[in-house]
Design goal:
By secondary structure, this protein is an alpha/beta fold. The chain is built from 17 helices and 17 strands.
């Protein structure tokens, strides 16, 4: 196996046009994408081969994910990739959103549909956990921000509900990986997002599992970003293109993959990974867990090559989407481009809202929750006519940009960095109005990365992993991944606009 991988790596180094293709799977809470990288005269070209919608479902027992539908969509995309790559496919890697997980039964199948992190069940669980392990102790153990969506609180919610604590679990990207190759692991960047990893290590925190009486044996082994797990298995392995394909874990946390794709040097930059959530942060060599970082609830998420992404989750464009869904139900069918075009000419709102209000993290009744805030501020409520709709949307966008500025100011104070550049990556960077407001509020030079930066980072990690195939289990270095990300950028990476191609 290692010899075959080394041949692939040798071709990749020489940028030969007959190099095998690669596939990146990016799971999103609203849209999932399967992309194919092929080589054209030594230049990497990426096509989004398959894209399918995703959303939580609401059976009688909570907000959940239809994991089988997600996997079926992935398989459909992989089959399309196989049909497009007669040269064969060297590797596949899956990334996605963090914290949610699948419990496995004795046969290795989902024991139930996995819960969505926005389900309200963790409200009680969070309070119960903090009565045993106070937030200050949890932060000192993990360096992870206190968010009730974290896997930690979800696992405790399982315990409160009487679920079998010994059932093995896998975060969602690693579950899809498991279905593709049979290896049950937790990739480092995604593992840190659970709130269960010992600070500064690549191991689960014994104290948390012990004090909360959670079963540590149910947790998967933690492996580094870029680990090569082995050959693809199952029905897909019979397709000619997948005969010699290996499955690699990239940075399974999509934000870590997106950050790995930023071709930035120096120490004067920060990032926003903009989408359903806005993850606002910077890259460090070691964790930042001083008293100010704890009081401001910053998180130290694992990055590629053992780096640390110091960041905060800010409620992202999901909030505006929630409002638009309510307007649709009321009969006001605004499309986002039209809404933004009208908002662009509006003045700054009289008052801003707290986009990170815990109530706004929960689905449903977003407009009523915003109006509750405006009432506390002594401002009039937003109505349902078109001027009120535009005013509310304008307020949300200005409030998001102001929150970005607040977080970035805190990052500068915590790290001593003199920030000058702000890279905005992900699908949300297509929102030109929000980008302009962000530049105004932060005073930083805003640089737009790829809307598909997660996919590019995923591919860069795969290339770095194949390059060091003789040491396939050791993961990759940040420098080797940055080299490939920069190479793709220098080659003016050709990428489709994401229209359905299958």
């Amino acid at each position: 196996m290692a010899e075959g991988l080394r041949c692939v790596a040798d071709k990749r180094n020489s940028m030969e046009p007959d190099s095998k293709a690669l596939v990146a799977v990016d799971l999103g809470a609203q849209s999932c994408r399967i992309s194919l990288l092929r080589w054209n005269r030594g230049v990497p070209q990426i096509e989004v081969v398959h894209r399918f919608a995703n959303a939580p479902v609401s059976p009688n027992d909570g907000l959940r994910w239809d994991i089988e539908a997600i996997f079926d969509g992935v398989v459909t995309g992989l089959r399309s990739c196989a049909a497009r790559a007669p040269e064969g496919i060297a590797s596949i890697a899956v990334d996605g959103w963090a914290v949610d997980y699948v419990r496995l039964d004795a046969a290795g199948n989902p024991a139930a549909l996995p819960f969505c992190h926005r389900d309200a069940r963790t409200e009680i669980a969070e309070n119960k956990v903090h009565s045993i392990l106070p937030p200050s102790r949890l932060y000192s153990l993990t360096g992870i921000q206190i968010l009730r969506i974290n896997t930690l609180y979800q696992l405790y919610a399982d315990k409160l509900a009487g679920s079998d604590p010994s059932l093995p679990w896998l975060n969602l990207p690693e579950f899809i990986t498991y279905r593709l190759c049979g290896q049950r692991v937790s990739e480092y960047t995604n593992a840190t997002h659970t709130g269960l990893v010992q600070l500064g290590t690549h191991t689960w925190c014994d104290e948390i599992f012990r004090e909360l009486n959670l079963d540590i044996s149910a947790a998967p082994e933690i492996v580094p970003s870029g680990s090569v797990l082995g050959p693809i298995s199952g029905e897909l392995s019979h397709l000619q293109a997948f005969r010699e394909t290996v499955v690699i874990v990239p940075a399974c946390h999509d934000t870590a993959s997106a950050v790995a794709a930023i071709p930035a040097a120096g120490d004067d930059w920060a990032f926003i990974s903009s989408g359903t959530w806005s993850l606002v942060g910077t890259v460090l060599d070691s964790p930042c867990v001083n008293g100010d970082a704890r009081s401001l609830n910053f998180t130290n998420l694992g990055g590629v090559g053992g780096k640390i992404c110091l960041l905060k989750n800010v409620n992202g464009l999901w909030l505006l989407r929630q409002c638009m869904d309510e307007w649709d139900l009321q009969g006001s069918h605004w499309r986002l481009p039209e809404l933004l075009a009208h908002c662009a000419s509006l003045p700054s709102p009289a008052a801003l809202i707290n986009v990170d209000d815990p109530q706004l993290m929960l689905p449903g009744n977003a407009i009523a929750k915003i109006n509750a805030q405006t009432a506390r501020l002594g401002q009039p409520s937003f109505g349902t006519d078109d001027p009120a709709i535009l005013s509310l949307a304008n307020t949300v966008l200005h409030s998001m940009a102001a929150r970005y500025a607040e977080v970035l100011s805190s990052i500068g104070a915590l790290t001593g960095k003199k920030l000058r550049r702000l890279f905005i990556v992900g699908g949300g960077n297509q929102n030109a109005l929000l980008n302009r407001l962000t530049a105004q509020h932060t005073g930083l030079e805003v640089i737009l990365g790829s809307t598909e930066s997660t996919t590019i980072g995923n591919f860069a990690i795969q290339m770095a992993a194949l390059e060091r195939a003789g040491n396939a289990s050791a993961g990759v270095t940040a420098e080797s991944v940055a080299k490939w990300a920069e190479q793709m950028s220098l080659n003016s990476l050709a990428m489709s606009n994401g229209r359905e191609a299958s």
